[in-house]
């Protein structure tokens, strides 16, 4: 990796446009997250690798979470979705989480990168570490800080949703695959509610 | 595929021993399950492909489930484990299921083939179909026949366990990865119990 943005047109000396710079930053970020994990990567190091000022990375993506979400095409930005969920009355949280998962996983374009990451994590320890660190820091750190719910309970709730999503959208087992959103809310929301109460 | 068992030593004309014949049957079964799915494969067709009598396949493996479990190295034989679970008093079922999952997934050798199948199912529709059909027929058919629990509820319970297993053994997120068996029973068994009551 040289210090120069990769998107620069070789030999022309033309300054890269904002789109090219953005893509160059994301390419460096993708490589760095895969190589050093989520915790081992900083916004500053990504900027250095892409040959740009850290302020520009901040300007484009806000936080490290934001860079990760874009670079890995992670289909949800926890820094956007979690505050929304946590602003709800506690007793509506179970239902809101079920509907959020169904919305994200029900969209094949958003599901695909998530499944790709999960597949990698199943054979590759580095990929597992990256996902583990992102889940821990961006998701649990934020959710835990906002409430008094033990992390183990949050993980049981997330586990419930991951498993149901795999049965519904990957294995497509019936009747789970064809159940309506309301049926799944009625079935699963009380479970989440119990974990989070 | 010729009609002769693959394990026969080429050009020697020697009769294959029981171990070789068993392996030859499993090799044909593996190919046939992957190619035609679980529902599209019969004990008779496996026998034909392996060039042996169906009675011999039955003698070695009992049922089609038994062949699948051996051929795919599926770490649990539903025809053994489900009757054990279903013989328990209903109110102990939640705990027993949690402990069974932890026992199977906690063993790296039993976890590996399961993860391999799950990975394949994430990218390959044939692999997904095979796993879906096996889960539906061998697991849900059996569990549903024995009780009055709706399939959707059984799947929500299985989903809870799959998700927790992925967080604990694949992503190894803390504190889930280090939680004791008893902690997980206390956390998750009431959820399963609710689905199955």
From TrEMBL, chains A, B:
PROSITE patterns: HTH_TETR_2
Any Pfam family the entry gives: TetR_N
Binding region for DNA: 42-61
Keyword terms: DNA-binding
Gene Ontology MF terms: DNA-binding transcription factor activity; transcription cis-regulatory region binding
Stretches for region Disordered: 1-20
UniProt cross-references to SUPFAM superfamilies, sorted A to Z: Homeodomain-like, Tetracyclin repressor-like, C-terminal domain
Domain HTH tetR-type residues, every copy: 19-79
Name the UniProt record assigns to this protein: TetR family transcriptional regulator
